[in-house]
Design brief:
The complex is a heterodimer of chains A (257) and B (368).
Chain A lengths: L2 H43 L4 H20 L3 H29 L9 H4 L10 H34 L5 H40 L4 H6 L1 H42 L1
Chain B lengths: L6 H22 L9 E9 L3 E4 L5 E13 L8 E9 L13 E10 L2 E9 L2 H46 L5 H21 L3 H27 L17 H34 L5 H29 L2 H9 L4 H38 L4
Parallel strand pairs in B: 4-6
Antiparallel strand pairs in B: 1-3, 1-5, 2-3, 3-4, 5-6
Helix pairs in contact in B: 1-2, 2-3, 3-4, 3-5, 4-5, 4-8, 5-6, 5-8, 6-8, 7-8
Classes of the chains: A mainly alpha (257), B alpha+beta (368).
């Protein structure tokens, strides 16, 4: 049996053991996200415009992660709308930043991997890099928006008459509670992948100036900073969306009681 | 909605704008600090596009451009230099330059009295500074004190990370796992201390994080061993200068650490809250609520890491497919390592749920 199957089975077993039905759904959401990610690559291979693929894959992955991660529609619908707004802002920002930084394609450090490859594939690597950066931030946006939205739903359940600015304050307070650990998740997630690159840089004594202009390093750093920004934007935006949707949320709470 | 602008916030905004302007001023005028020649493009003339086609029917176009640029540092500062550059439509390793771009030069030489050079990549540091400034500003404005602590934690961890890398190089990569496990331990203590302070909560979270991550790595290594690493292509690991396998395990360890910490601290926080509401809460109740919090966070968290790890393989996978490789081979050579990393991290995230719930229940619950 190949290692990936074995590890997948162990993960599935543990998820169902710990989470029951919800664990099974979580596993399924990872599988689906993998499917959509691979599908996105295949679509770009067939020359579908990368920006279109980015938008469609982004929305789909957000929907899968949010709606399969949580049952409560009061939480998920708000989280989904909020994350769509954040996604839109990020796509615009990433588009602007990556045209400025020009970190598409490969760096000189990749030349070993590229040996024997034909790299002129007629698809703009710049657009592909926008797609990749957007995809890397989606999970973080979805997770943060669910956390904020869940907290706000609970506040509305206990205090249905709370005024809007207090509700937003509540959202920001939840944000302050999760921000430290969420940034840690992203920081370590990215630095895990950084390790070998850093050893390379340090081993060959790259200067600070070289590193901060290096294509691969700058590309990775942009990914980290954009996901930080995504999470930071998610907090106020989810709170604002909750203010707009509070009547529906309270109605639903009354129905379920 | 009324936004209350406290005086402190206004000072902060003014301070950040001043800092931002100064930083941008510095980074757009720091060319003299670089030893490598930098020039700004003042004139570009593009020649006719040349069509290229490879054996896989990928069509692209290459354009040669003659660039006139003005040197911004070195002893020929202010002189014009001629640069010849070729770029393609897809721009994988090459780069189109436009008027106003700043670029690094290599092989600067004098030919019949005229300076010529080769292009060696655009100057990118201003983007990094701008984006970094934007993140710090938004972080401090929206998150206040919590944001400051998060920032301090990221800075300290980066420094520790760099120290560990140089320690690893000093040992020529012979104790990779030992060094980076130690680093992971210090990371956890520092991050949790900064987020939670020196509390009982922090100790419980710390214990759970260490236990969860350790078990996950052990399970992962065991499965890798039992299946003889079948389908795991260490040779496809990027930028490797040391023995790939221990390096890969160290990457998994570091990568999953943040997520396990995140989840453990969420669960522990809930358990402490329950204890506060009802001091007589039983161990079983605590365990059950820990589990119910955990099972709703674990799915999104695994997805966070999964998307980070897999997005990195995006460009390379596309290249493989465009070079006539099958889906299976493309997956094996580009995505298999990311997949293994995601799966082992996922196992850690899931295992941390019962571990932290049991730990919390023992620490806080009453025996019945």
């Amino acid at each position: 049996m190949s290692t990936i199957y074995a590890l997948g089975l162990v993960l599935l077993f543990l998820m169902v053991l710990v989470g029951g039905k919800q664990g099974w759904r979580s596993f399924l959401s990872i599988l689906l996200n993998f499917g959509f990610l691979f599908f996105a690559i295949v679509l770009i291979e067939f020359h579908v415009p990368p920006m279109f693929v980015t938008a469609v894959t982004g929305i789909t992955i957000l929907a899968v992660t949010i709606f399969m991660g949580e049952d409560d529609l009061r939480i998920t619908v708000t989280a989904f709308y909020a994350s769509l707004i954040v996604l839109l802002i990020l796509i615009i920002l990433i588009f602007f930043v990556s045209h400025w930084a020009m970190v598409q394609g490969f760096g000189n450090e990749d030349s070993d991997d590229l040996e024997g490859m034909s790299i002129l594939i007629g698809i703009s690597y710049l657009k592909v890099s926008v797609t990749a950066i957007v995809i890397s931030t989606l999970g973080a946006i979805a997770e943060a928006s669910i956390a904020i939205s869940a907290g706000l739903t609970e506040i509305l359940e206990v205090h249905p008459k709370i005024n809007n600015s207090r509700l937003i304050d509540g959202g920001m307070a939840i944000g302050r509670q999760i921000i430290g650990t969420t940034l840690n998740t992203l920081f370590f997630g990215f630095f895990g992948g950084f390790l070998s690159l850093f050893i390379w840089f340090a081993g060959l004594h790259y200067s600070i100036g070289t590193i901060f202009n290096n294509k691969i390093f700058v590309a990775e750093l942009i990914e980290i900073l954009i996901s930080f920004l995504g999470v930071l934007l998610t907090v106020p935006i989810t709170s604002l969306v909750m203010v707009k949707r509070r009547d529906q949320v309270i109605d639903k709470s009354a129905e379920t009681k | 909605m009324i936004i209350k602008w406290s005086r402190r916030k206004i000072y902060l905004i003014i301070g950040m704008i001043v800092c931002g302007l100064l930083a941008m001023l510095f980074v757009t005028h720091n060319q003299r600090l670089y030893r490598q020649p930098i020039a700004q493009v003042v004139r570009v003339s593009n020649e006719k596009k040349q069509r290229t086609e490879d054996e896989f029917k990928n069509v692209d176009h290459q354009t040669t451009q003659k660039i006139t640029a003005v040197l911004m540092n070195g002893k020929n500062r202010g002189d014009q230099v001629k640069v010849q550059n070729t770029f393609s439509d897809s721009q994988p390793l090459d780069q189109e330059y436009k008027v106003g771009n700043q670029l690094f030069l290599s092989q600067l030489r004098r030919d019949h009295g005229k300076l010529t050079a080769n292009p060696a990549g655009p100057k990118r540091d201003s983007v990094v500074v701008f984006l970094g400034w934007l993140v710090v500003t938004v972080l401090l404005l929206t998150m206040g004190k919590a944001g400051t602590f998060a920032l301090v934690s990221v800075v300290i961890n980066t420094i520790l990370f760099l120290l560990a890398v140089s320690l690893d190089l000093h040992n020529q990569g012979s104790h990779v796992l030992l060094i980076f496990s130690g680093l992971a331990l210090i990371f956890t203590v520092v991050s949790l201390f900064l987020v939670l302070g020196p509390t009982k909560k922090m100790l419980a979270t710390l214990g759970a994080t260490i236990a969860g991550t350790t078990i996950a790595i052990l399970v992962g290594v065991l499965v890798l061993h039992l299946t003889h690493n079948r389908g795991v292509y260490y040779e496809s690991m990027q930028y490797v200068t040391q023995v790939p396998r221990p390096l890969f395990i160290a990457e998994i360890l570091l990568g999953s650490l943040g997520a396990v910490m995140d989840e453990s601290s969420d669960i522990v926080a809930t358990l402490f809250e329950l204890k506060q509401i009802d001091p007589n809460v039983s161990r079983t109740q605590l365990f059950m609520s820990g589990r119910s919090v955990g099972k709703s966070i674990m799915g999104p968290l695994v997805n966070v890491l999964f998307l980070i790890f897999m997005a990195d393989t995006f460009t390379n996978s596309l290249l493989y497919l465009k070079n006539g490789n099958s889906w299976g081979y493309t997956f094996s050579m580009n995505m298999s390592l990311g997949m293994v990393q995601s799966l082992i991290s996922g196992i850690g995230i899931v295992l941390a749920v019962p571990v932290v719930s049991v730990l919390g229940a023992i620490l806080l619950g009453r025996r019945r």
